[in-house]
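ARCHIVE CARD
Drawer: 12
Card no.: 0347
Subject: one protein chain, sequence and derived structure
Cross-reference: see card 0346
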Amino acid sequence: MFEIELPLRTVPESNRGGEHWATKSKRHNQQKLLMKAAMRTCDIKPPCKITLTRIAPRPLDSHDNLASSFKWVVDSIASLLTGDRVSGRADSHPGLFFAYNQEKRGVREYVIKIRIESIELISNPPYGLIYKPPSIEEIQNNPVLSKKYELAKKICCKSYKIPVLIKKITRGEPHNYELD
């Protein structure tokens, strides 16, 4: 696992229409250079999950502004992890999975947190590569996963009267759960 926090202010690229091209270019180049310097010690190769967290005084719209604010960061990280030097193409690599989060901090505190984890994939020919779900022991040993698992079990069992999500989480292994 590779984790780093960098002092970087990200802005939504989709809402910057009236910005001068030189200002945009300067910001993009700074972000790319910072990523290249920060990623020198990262030895993880795809398949991996990259979690980008924006820490700032005000949150962005998580639907599209949050992802667009990380555009140049994502392009740089993907390019460095895959070795594909063509700008904007490396982030479509099938072994890279991106997740976006945001946290609120004090006034004028702008930071991004990058977390890269190696993941194990299973192949499913019609749909390509997918995550290998955690085993039931991994779920029980991890408090966050166990809480999500119990919530999913309640929702799934009460809504559909079949444990579909339970089967997905446990990789279809047999289980002894009472339906409510």
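Annotation on reverse: The two ends are 39 Å apart (CA to CA). Helices lie at 21-38, 65-69, 71-82, 136-141, 143-160, 164-169.
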